[in-house]
Amino acid sequence: ELKVEQNPLFLSMQEGKNYTIYCNYSTTSDRLYWYRQDPGKSLESLFVLLSNGAVKQEGRLMASLDTKARLSTLHITAAVHDLSATYFCAVGAGSYQLTFGKGTKLSVIP
Amino acid sequence: NAGVTQTPKFQVLKTGQSMTLQCAQDMNHNSMYWYRQDPGMGLRLIYYSASEGTTDKGEVPNGYNVSRLNKREFSLRLESAAPSQTSVYFCASSENPTLNTEAFFGQGTRLTVV
């Protein structure tokens, strides 16, 4: 059974600071996704990571994948209030199912 | 460019009542999914349809049934609602996950069972 663990689950950070969210998974995977969810809203796709060493960046967010360590990171650079949201990683392993982490609720404080 | 559309957005049911959640996508995607989201639990897959004419159980299928009506539509039915089914339900679609494309989500249905 594929297990996905995110940490931290809650993150409060000041504007302008850097931080990293971690996503560990338990079995070999061929794809990993990061999603953002604003309160009361749907999930928005941020990144799709498909191979070992993949790195993708969009604005102040950068995601990477290490398949050997079964680890993905979402790095936040110089956080701004607009990045406050819940971030989910989701892992697929050879089937149609995605297993989601519990999410990291990020609050960026002025 | 509607994407994935779910109806209704909100619903309150009494225990034992039945209802169907509707989902439609206009992206010509092959695969569709129903998830439920509970506080602190992330999203859990209820049922999915890999392609038109097929459906399969996910992680938490008990108490639910689904119908893939055509390529566009995938409905979720609660035959006899229970308070444990109080949740936010999301429908999603993807072109074909084996091609490693991401899933696109609807706006969600907030269901309360009293």
- Strands of chain A, total number: 11
Order of helices and strands of chain A: EEEEEEEEEEE
Low-confidence stretches of chain B: none
Helix content of chain B: under 10%
The oligomerization state is: heterodimer
Strand-residue fraction of chain A? over 45%
Q: Encode the helix/strand succession of chain B as letters.
A: EEEEEEEEEEE
Average of the residue pLDDT scores of chain B: 93
DSSP strand tally of chain B: 11
In a few lines, what is going on in this structure?
The complex is a heterodimer of chains A (110) and B (114). Chain A has 110 residues and is an all-beta fold.
What attributes characterize this protein structure?
A: 110 residues; mainly beta; six-stranded mixed sheet
Record the SSE blueprint.
The complex is a heterodimer of chains A (110) and B (114).
Chain A: E1 4-7, E2 10-14, E3 19-25, E4 31-37, E5 43-49, E6 55-58, E7 61-66, E8 71-76, E9 85-92, E10 98-100, E11 104-109
Parallel strand pairs in A: 2-11
Antiparallel strand pairs in A: 1-3, 3-8, 4-5, 4-9, 6-7, 7-8, 9-10, 9-11
Chain B: E1 4-7, E2 10-13, E3 19-25, E4 31-38, E5 42-49, E6 56-57, E7 64-68, E8 74-78, E9 87-94, E10 104-105, E11 109-113
Parallel strand pairs in B: 2-11
Antiparallel strand pairs in B: 1-3, 3-8, 4-5, 4-9, 5-6, 7-8, 9-10, 9-11
